[in-house]
Amino acid sequence: MRVEDETISERQCQEWRVSYRNGKSPYELAVESDHPRRDVYDHLIGECSHDCDETPISRGRTHNVTAPECRDIRDRYAAGEAIEALRASTGRRWQTLVRHLTGNCSHEVAVESPTVAKQEILQRDHVTAEECAQLRRGVHDAASVMAYADTVDHEYQVVLAHVNGECAHEVDEPPREPNDRRRDISNSDCQAIRETYRSSPDVDFSDIAEEYDCSRTTIERHITFRCSHPPVDALVTDVDAVQDLLESGVDADDGLSKFSPEEIVQLDRDGRADRKEPALDLIAPDPDRVETTRSRVVRNTDLAHDMKRMYNHTCQVCSVSRRGPDGNPYAEAHHIRPLGRPHDGPDEPENILVLCPNHHADFDYGRLTVDPETYRVTHTYEEAVDGTVLNIADPHQISDDHLTYHNKVIAGE
């Protein structure tokens, strides 16, 4: 959709693009020109009718919420501005606004403006207890929460919060069980998302997230087969299809495409693989990989075992040692910057954390972040660990760059 706003001249559009190229953010330009950030951003990406000499910026560029913008968002909300109005004027997603309004964000300088509880934000969305119960009932028969949200008068993220029980309502209709939440995106939507990425590999996850009104992390999870939906025509029962995928030419791993179909099947018998722990992170070009119906990855886990022993199989976040099916201590190795395309994180100690299964999943979904300077843990909902300091054993060195990458790209700060 193109912006039709006669109050913004072609000269102004040109000046914004030049200033952006010179280092100013969309928010800074909005403040200087007294225009909504969304209008500035739309002109920067070319969503207007102007034919400027300065070309538009890439739509896939992401712009973090700075401390001044965070302060502005909180002050405007505290003054009574609705979150829908903030979304319209800033162009920020509901989830991003909520993270900064609730204080689940991190900035180089402290933001003194008041924060609010997520429940208060939900209450101001004017969803009554009766509507909350209706949302929970209605989503049962829908293909997905996203599909159901299109049929009601509330934002997808608002519907999601109420059906998941993240509100203050006490109604007879129970919230969804965690195992049911895999239906947030339907199988058909998942396949469409993957096809979009396959047909345009250079597209940014944020662009697809905007189209589907969900988080960048959700899009990444479905594109990288870390959801419950099976890959299409890529099952290990059809070895030729696996080989076609590897040799497709769409940024296929050169280190994998050399394998014959028979060798791909043989990978599943690799005795070095850890059968207890599924590899949730994407695989790097060097380790061995096999596609199964659950799109699990097998690899040499010597390094992961060494890291677990360093921490006595204890989670670096909650300091708890869990027990596996055989009664032995159990922990998982998490790659801070995921392995393989599109993240290309290394398989080295500086990029590994030892975590319990719960906090491993929270890291994967961006619910957990660690400050690269203070190692302070921030959790979006678990008060027991939020604000604690990450446990780091000597001589484990953790890369500040990988933590920063996780915070910005995976958690979307």
Kindly summarize this structure in a few lines.
Keywords: Endonuclease, Hydrolase, Nuclease. The chain has 413 residues and is mainly alpha-helical.
Explain what the structure shows.
- By secondary structure, the chain is mainly α.
- Among the domains are: 187-223; 230-300, no CATH class; 302-410, no CATH class.
- The chain is 39% helix and 4% strand.
- It has helices spanning 10-21, 26-33, 37-44, 67-78, 83-90, 94-101, 118-124, 129-138, 145-149, 156-163, 187-199, 205-212, 216-223, 239-246, 254-257, 261-267, 302-310, 357-364, 400-410, and strands spanning 322-323, 329-330, 332-335, 352-355, 368-370, 377-379.
- The protein has a two-stranded antiparallel sheet.
- Strand 1 (322-323) and strand 2 (329-330) form a beta hairpin.
- Helix 2 (26-33) packs across helix 3, helix 12 (205-212) packs across helix 13 (216-223) and helix 14 (239-246) crosses helix 16.
- It is globular.
- The two termini are 27 Å apart.
- GO terms for molecular function: endonuclease activity.
- Residues 169-186 have a biased composition (Basic and acidic residues).
- Residues 169-189 are annotated as: Disordered.
- InterPro entries: HNH_nuc.
